[in-house]
Design a protein that fits this description.
With 320 residues, this protein is mainly α. The chain has 15 helices and no strands. Helix 2 crosses helix 4 and helix 14 runs antiparallel to helix 15. It starts with 15 loop residues before the first helix and ends with a helix.
């Protein structure tokens, strides 16, 4: 049965993406990495689900797993130690019902117990995540400077990728990898002329040549950083299609790994519901219909089904 808190007032479930971004903004800049941003987004998702289900036991178990997996990243434990207070500080002045805030008080104690557990990392130093995060953050800063709208889109795609990967029950490592793919997929647009990126109309054939070049340009950019080489194939192929009609290489389904399929769906869905200079945003319902029309041709059926589930879960608080 749905928790009554989801039927009144402002909806935590419906606003979770915005809340996750706001929670990430509270993290000091010196500690803010892509991993921490994804953890903040996932924490809000887990807290929201717990409010709906009436228990936060699964969220506490997830926090325990994250602390164990990232014992060599102290910022993770610092975030969890402050998350309840930060989240309450965000919700309190914005008109959210007390039913959304009350569980935070009872959640603090089990989180403190998790954080108090002794941890010891066994991962080699070269496998630690900080260098990859630093490289991706550097790319995002570069993209922000070239085109803030594309950087905003990339952050949103990373969040959608994270949700899709979790819905598809991928491992924590795979979720992180796919989310990073989403964050970096459009880095090649730093080379695309702004008059093409922001054209208030459909592009001409010649302009599309420049636009499509962002896939190969992005591949070249990430290949220059040893920490990002693993992402190069996805950056190049995120506009490929299952039916071989994509670009730049006309790859077909057997050549497209799951990470690329997830990014493709997340990228297209967010593009449809987002701001564009030449058209208003689509509704999520209409965007899902467009995904459905192209299942098996452009999009993977399982990933599209997962997107339906993710969007439906987000709308549940509104639908009642």
């Amino acid at each position: 049965m749905m928790n009554a808190a989801f039927l009144v007032g402002k909806s935590l479930d419906h606003d979770r993406a915005e809340i996750g971004a706001a929670l990430a903004d509270t993290i000091p800049s010196a500690e803010r990495t892509l991993l921490i941003e994804l953890v903040a987004d996932a924490f809000v998702d887990g807290y929201t689900s717990g409010c709906r289900d009436g228990t936060h036991e699964e969220l506490v178990r997830w926090i325990d797993r994250m602390c164990e997996a990232h014992a060599d990243t102290p910022a993770i434990a610092t975030f969890f130690g402050n998350a309840c207070g930060w989240l309450d500080g965000y919700l309190a002045p914005r008109g959210y019902d007390n039913a959304f805030r009350t569980p935070l008080r009872s959640l603090e104690r089990p989180i403190r117990k998790v954080l108090a557990k002794p941890r010891r990392t066994t991962r080699p130093i070269q496998e630690q995540l900080d260098e990859i995060d630093a490289a991706i953050n550097g790319m995002l800063v570069r993209l922000e400077g070239a085109d803030p709208l594309t950087a905003e889109h990339s952050r949103a795609v990373a969040a959608w990728c994270s949700r899709l990967a979790r819905r598809l029950t991928l491992s924590d490592e795979e979720v992180t990898f796919v989310s990073r793919c989403g964050m970096i997929h459009d880095i090649g647009k730093v080379t695309t002329p702004k008059e093409i990126l922001h054209a208030p109309r459909q592009l001409t054939d010649d302009e599309w040549v420049f636009m499509r070049d962002h896939t190969t340009a992005g591949e070249r950019i990430v290949q220059k950083d040893k920490n990002l080489i693993a992402f190069a194939p996805m950056v190049r192929s995120h506009h490929e299609r299952l039916d071989g009609r994509g670009y730049p290489d006309k790859l077909t389904a057997p050549d497209l790994p799951l990470a690329t399929r997830i990014v493709t769906v997340a990228d297209c869905f967010n593009a449809m519901i987002g701001r564009r200079p030449y058209r208003p945003p689509m509704s999520p319902t209409r965007a899902l219909e467009q995904l459905d029309v192209n299942v098996g041709k452009q999009f993977d059926a399982d990933v599209v089904a997962a997107m339906h589930d993710v969007v439906r879960q987000g709308d549940r608080g509104v639908a009642g």
